[in-house]
Design a protein that fits this description.
9 strands; 9 helices; 3-stranded antiparallel beta sheet; elongated; alpha/beta; 260 residues
Protein backbone atom coordinates (compact mmCIF):
# COMPACT_ATOMS: atom_id res chain seq x y z
CA UNK A 1 0.00 0.00 0.00
CA UNK A 2 1.33 3.42 -0.95
CA UNK A 3 2.18 5.75 1.92
CA UNK A 4 0.00 8.81 2.45
CA UNK A 5 1.31 12.36 2.13
CA UNK A 6 1.26 12.68 5.91
CA UNK A 7 3.31 9.51 6.37
CA UNK A 8 5.87 10.60 3.78
CA UNK A 9 6.23 14.04 5.34
CA UNK A 10 6.67 12.45 8.77
CA UNK A 11 9.44 10.26 7.38
CA UNK A 12 11.18 13.23 5.79
CA UNK A 13 10.94 15.16 9.06
CA UNK A 14 12.58 12.25 10.89
CA UNK A 15 15.41 12.19 8.36
CA UNK A 16 16.00 15.91 8.94
CA UNK A 17 15.90 15.57 12.73
CA UNK A 18 18.44 12.74 12.62
CA UNK A 19 20.81 14.60 10.27
CA UNK A 20 23.55 17.13 10.96
CA UNK A 21 25.00 17.97 7.53
CA UNK A 22 22.23 18.43 4.97
CA UNK A 23 22.89 19.30 1.34
CA UNK A 24 19.80 20.66 -0.43
CA UNK A 25 19.83 20.32 -4.21
CA UNK A 26 17.27 22.49 -5.99
CA UNK A 27 16.01 22.80 -9.56
CA UNK A 28 13.44 24.83 -11.45
CA UNK A 29 10.54 23.18 -9.61
CA UNK A 30 11.36 25.04 -6.41
CA UNK A 31 10.94 28.41 -8.15
CA UNK A 32 7.97 27.74 -10.44
CA UNK A 33 5.76 28.25 -7.38
CA UNK A 34 7.14 31.79 -7.23
CA UNK A 35 5.99 32.42 -10.78
CA UNK A 36 9.28 31.75 -12.57
CA UNK A 37 8.67 29.44 -15.54
CA UNK A 38 10.91 26.44 -16.04
CA UNK A 39 12.71 25.74 -19.29
CA UNK A 40 11.51 22.39 -20.59
CA UNK A 41 7.91 21.85 -19.47
CA UNK A 42 4.92 22.68 -21.70
CA UNK A 43 4.68 26.45 -21.81
CA UNK A 44 8.27 26.73 -20.57
CA UNK A 45 10.92 29.14 -21.78
CA UNK A 46 12.19 26.95 -24.63
CA UNK A 47 8.74 26.95 -26.20
CA UNK A 48 8.96 30.73 -26.45
CA UNK A 49 12.59 31.02 -27.54
CA UNK A 50 14.89 28.96 -29.75
CA UNK A 51 17.60 27.53 -27.45
CA UNK A 52 20.01 27.53 -30.42
CA UNK A 53 20.13 31.32 -30.12
CA UNK A 54 21.39 31.04 -26.55
CA UNK A 55 24.66 29.20 -27.05
CA UNK A 56 27.90 30.75 -25.86
CA UNK A 57 29.33 30.71 -29.38
CA UNK A 58 26.34 32.59 -30.84
CA UNK A 59 26.44 35.14 -28.01
CA UNK A 60 30.13 35.84 -28.52
CA UNK A 61 30.23 35.86 -32.33
CA UNK A 62 26.80 37.01 -33.51
CA UNK A 63 25.74 40.55 -32.66
CA UNK A 64 22.13 39.83 -33.63
CA UNK A 65 22.06 36.86 -31.23
CA UNK A 66 23.61 38.98 -28.48
CA UNK A 67 21.04 41.72 -29.04
CA UNK A 68 18.20 39.15 -28.93
CA UNK A 69 19.60 37.63 -25.75
CA UNK A 70 19.66 40.93 -23.91
CA UNK A 71 16.24 41.92 -25.23
CA UNK A 72 14.75 38.60 -24.12
CA UNK A 73 16.43 38.78 -20.73
CA UNK A 74 15.76 42.40 -19.83
CA UNK A 75 12.88 43.73 -21.92
CA UNK A 76 10.84 40.55 -22.47
CA UNK A 77 11.48 39.22 -18.95
CA UNK A 78 13.05 35.96 -20.15
CA UNK A 79 13.05 35.07 -16.46
CA UNK A 80 10.82 37.55 -14.60
CA UNK A 81 12.59 38.90 -11.53
CA UNK A 82 10.61 42.02 -10.78
CA UNK A 83 7.82 41.28 -8.35
CA UNK A 84 8.98 37.69 -7.82
CA UNK A 85 9.44 36.58 -4.21
CA UNK A 86 10.64 33.42 -2.45
CA UNK A 87 7.97 30.86 -1.69
CA UNK A 88 7.39 28.50 1.22
CA UNK A 89 9.99 26.01 -0.02
CA UNK A 90 12.72 28.68 -0.10
CA UNK A 91 11.84 29.84 3.42
CA UNK A 92 11.84 26.25 4.69
CA UNK A 93 15.37 25.73 3.38
CA UNK A 94 16.43 29.00 5.01
CA UNK A 95 15.00 27.69 8.28
CA UNK A 96 17.19 24.60 7.99
CA UNK A 97 20.19 26.93 8.03
CA UNK A 98 18.92 28.74 11.12
CA UNK A 99 18.54 25.37 12.85
CA UNK A 100 22.17 24.55 12.13
CA UNK A 101 21.19 21.58 9.98
CA UNK A 102 22.16 22.92 6.56
CA UNK A 103 25.63 22.39 5.13
CA UNK A 104 24.87 24.05 1.80
CA UNK A 105 22.47 24.50 -1.10
CA UNK A 106 23.48 23.39 -4.56
CA UNK A 107 21.10 25.00 -7.02
CA UNK A 108 20.54 24.78 -10.75
CA UNK A 109 18.48 27.98 -10.55
CA UNK A 110 19.75 31.38 -11.61
CA UNK A 111 17.19 33.53 -9.75
CA UNK A 112 18.81 34.30 -6.38
CA UNK A 113 15.66 33.45 -4.41
CA UNK A 114 17.49 31.30 -1.86
CA UNK A 115 19.54 34.30 -0.77
CA UNK A 116 16.46 36.51 -0.77
CA UNK A 117 14.73 34.01 1.52
CA UNK A 118 17.54 34.36 4.05
CA UNK A 119 20.18 31.78 3.19
CA UNK A 120 23.79 32.92 3.49
CA UNK A 121 25.29 33.59 0.05
CA UNK A 122 28.39 31.65 1.12
CA UNK A 123 26.25 28.51 1.47
CA UNK A 124 24.53 28.77 -1.92
CA UNK A 125 26.41 27.17 -4.80
CA UNK A 126 25.07 28.25 -8.20
CA UNK A 127 26.23 25.48 -10.52
CA UNK A 128 24.52 27.15 -13.48
CA UNK A 129 25.52 30.68 -12.49
CA UNK A 130 23.12 33.52 -11.77
CA UNK A 131 21.11 36.11 -13.67
CA UNK A 132 21.37 38.54 -10.77
CA UNK A 133 24.48 40.07 -12.32
CA UNK A 134 26.54 40.35 -15.50
CA UNK A 135 30.30 40.10 -15.88
CA UNK A 136 32.72 41.75 -18.28
CA UNK A 137 34.59 39.09 -20.24
CA UNK A 138 37.56 41.43 -20.63
CA UNK A 139 38.27 42.98 -17.22
CA UNK A 140 36.02 40.90 -14.94
CA UNK A 141 34.00 43.82 -13.56
CA UNK A 142 30.52 42.80 -12.45
CA UNK A 143 27.28 44.74 -12.75
CA UNK A 144 23.94 44.16 -11.09
CA UNK A 145 21.29 43.23 -13.63
CA UNK A 146 19.05 46.06 -12.43
CA UNK A 147 21.73 48.55 -13.48
CA UNK A 148 21.83 47.02 -16.95
CA UNK A 149 18.04 47.09 -17.07
CA UNK A 150 18.22 50.84 -16.47
CA UNK A 151 20.70 51.25 -19.33
CA UNK A 152 18.42 49.38 -21.71
CA UNK A 153 15.40 51.37 -20.64
CA UNK A 154 17.42 54.43 -21.69
CA UNK A 155 18.08 53.00 -25.16
CA UNK A 156 21.08 50.69 -24.91
CA UNK A 157 20.58 47.58 -27.03
CA UNK A 158 23.81 45.65 -26.41
CA UNK A 159 25.33 46.55 -23.02
CA UNK A 160 29.09 46.97 -22.81
CA UNK A 161 31.44 47.35 -19.86
CA UNK A 162 31.59 50.97 -18.68
CA UNK A 163 35.20 50.45 -17.54
CA UNK A 164 36.87 48.91 -20.59
CA UNK A 165 34.22 48.60 -23.30
CA UNK A 166 34.41 44.81 -23.16
CA UNK A 167 31.62 42.32 -23.83
CA UNK A 168 29.16 41.96 -20.97
CA UNK A 169 27.65 38.53 -20.42
CA UNK A 170 24.98 37.44 -17.94
CA UNK A 171 26.79 35.49 -15.23
CA UNK A 172 24.84 32.34 -16.03
CA UNK A 173 26.01 29.22 -17.82
CA UNK A 174 25.10 29.18 -21.51
CA UNK A 175 24.71 26.16 -23.77
CA UNK A 176 28.21 25.08 -24.77
CA UNK A 177 29.81 26.66 -21.72
CA UNK A 178 31.49 24.68 -18.96
CA UNK A 179 30.05 24.85 -15.45
CA UNK A 180 32.13 26.90 -12.97
CA UNK A 181 34.81 24.42 -11.93
CA UNK A 182 35.35 25.65 -8.37
CA UNK A 183 31.62 25.70 -7.63
CA UNK A 184 31.13 22.24 -9.09
CA UNK A 185 34.08 20.66 -7.25
CA UNK A 186 33.06 22.19 -3.92
CA UNK A 187 29.47 21.01 -4.44
CA UNK A 188 30.76 17.51 -5.11
CA UNK A 189 32.94 17.56 -2.00
CA UNK A 190 30.08 18.65 0.21
CA UNK A 191 27.72 16.07 -1.30
CA UNK A 192 30.27 13.36 -0.55
CA UNK A 193 30.45 14.48 3.08
CA UNK A 194 26.79 15.11 3.89
CA UNK A 195 24.53 12.73 5.81
CA UNK A 196 21.31 13.75 4.00
CA UNK A 197 20.70 15.15 0.53
CA UNK A 198 17.26 16.64 -0.12
CA UNK A 199 16.42 17.10 -3.80
CA UNK A 200 13.70 19.71 -4.34
CA UNK A 201 12.15 20.48 -7.70
CA UNK A 202 14.67 18.84 -10.01
CA UNK A 203 14.03 16.15 -12.60
CA UNK A 204 17.74 15.24 -12.35
CA UNK A 205 18.20 15.07 -16.11
CA UNK A 206 20.61 17.98 -16.64
CA UNK A 207 24.21 16.89 -16.26
CA UNK A 208 26.76 17.29 -14.79
CA UNK A 209 24.79 19.13 -12.08
CA UNK A 210 22.49 16.11 -11.59
CA UNK A 211 25.50 14.08 -10.46
CA UNK A 212 25.56 15.92 -7.12
CA UNK A 213 22.80 13.83 -5.43
CA UNK A 214 24.39 10.70 -6.90
CA UNK A 215 27.68 11.56 -5.18
CA UNK A 216 25.75 11.75 -1.91
CA UNK A 217 24.19 8.31 -2.45
CA UNK A 218 27.50 6.75 -3.42
CA UNK A 219 29.11 8.12 -0.25
CA UNK A 220 26.46 6.57 1.98
CA UNK A 221 24.22 9.58 2.59
CA UNK A 222 20.46 9.22 2.66
CA UNK A 223 18.50 10.96 -0.09
CA UNK A 224 15.00 12.42 -0.09
CA UNK A 225 13.33 13.64 -3.28
CA UNK A 226 10.54 16.19 -3.57
CA UNK A 227 9.52 16.57 -7.20
CA UNK A 228 6.18 16.45 -8.99
CA UNK A 229 7.51 13.94 -11.53
CA UNK A 230 9.50 10.80 -10.94
CA UNK A 231 13.28 10.81 -11.32
CA UNK A 232 15.86 8.18 -12.12
CA UNK A 233 17.11 8.42 -8.54
CA UNK A 234 13.76 7.60 -6.90
CA UNK A 235 14.70 3.96 -6.43
CA UNK A 236 17.73 4.97 -4.35
CA UNK A 237 15.89 7.48 -2.16
CA UNK A 238 14.69 6.94 1.40
CA UNK A 239 11.56 8.92 0.66
CA UNK A 240 10.01 10.34 -2.53
CA UNK A 241 7.22 12.89 -2.42
CA UNK A 242 5.62 13.79 -5.74
CA UNK A 243 3.82 16.89 -4.53
CA UNK A 244 4.25 20.66 -4.34
CA UNK A 245 7.64 21.72 -2.99
CA UNK A 246 6.19 24.54 -0.91
CA UNK A 247 3.40 22.47 0.62
CA UNK A 248 5.72 19.54 1.33
CA UNK A 249 8.51 21.57 2.91
CA UNK A 250 6.08 23.65 5.00
CA UNK A 251 4.41 20.53 6.38
CA UNK A 252 7.77 18.90 7.00
CA UNK A 253 9.27 21.83 8.88
CA UNK A 254 6.19 22.09 11.06
CA UNK A 255 6.87 18.53 12.27
CA UNK A 256 10.61 19.16 12.58
CA UNK A 257 10.03 22.13 14.89
CA UNK A 258 7.95 19.94 17.20
CA UNK A 259 10.57 17.22 17.33
CA UNK A 260 13.61 19.36 18.00
Amino acid sequence: MASSFGELVEKLADLIVDSHKIVVFTGAGVSTESGIPDFRSPGGIWQRYDPEMFTLQRFLNDLDARKLHWKALIQDDFIPHRGVSPNAAHYAVAELEKMGKLDCIVTQNVDGLHEEAGNSPDLVFHVHGTLERAICLECGKTYLMEEIRDWMNRGTQIPECRECGGVLKPDAVFFGEALPEKVLSESQRRAQNCDLCIVIGSSLVVYPAALIPQYAVQSGARVAIINRDRTDLDSRAEVCIHESAGETMSATMKIVRKKL
